[in-house]
Design brief:
The chain is α+β, with helices and mostly antiparallel strands. The protein is built from four helices and seven strands; from the N terminus they run ββααββαββαβ. Strands 5-6-4-3-7 form a five-stranded mixed beta sheet, with helices on one face.
Length: 123
């Protein structure tokens, strides 16, 4: 960005010079790192995660249930959101389990493994 120059009586100055003359000072913005604890530090990637296909008790509609997640409720919400976006399906969270609409077992296992979870199994 080009500095605008002003002139009066053959004297050139910038807007910054005018502000300094009026008593304004330039405080450099302080950059602070507000990340408390990285989410990756709190996730157990070796947890026994099971991906289950189920129709029973759901009006004969197929769902994929992911259980065994040892995550906080906030982390489960983030994981559910990411899975729903990557798989392009609807879903919800009930009792610490992620429930995805449709038969998404194989795709879910692949996505979870790509996210770093190691012990993901069907059933």
């Amino acid at each position: 960005m080009k500095k605008s120059e002003f002139s009066t009586d053959n004297k050139k100055f910038t807007l910054g010079d005018l502000l300094k003359d009026k008593g304004f000072t330039s405080n450099e913005a302080e950059i602070t790192n507000h990340s408390d604890q990285s989410v990756d530090d709190t996730i157990d990637y070796n947890a026994k995660i099971r991906v289950i296909y189920q129709k029973k008790g759901r009006g004969n509609n197929p769902v994929t249930i992911i259980n065994g997640l040892e995550l906080s409720s906030d982390d489960i919400k983030l994981l559910a959101k990411e899975l729903k976006q990557k798989l392009a399906v609807g879903g919800s969270i009930e009792n610490g389990e992620i429930i995805l609409q449709g038969d998404q077992v194989e795709k879910t296992i692949n996505v979870l493994k790509s996210l770093g979870y190691r012990n993901v199994k069907k059933g």
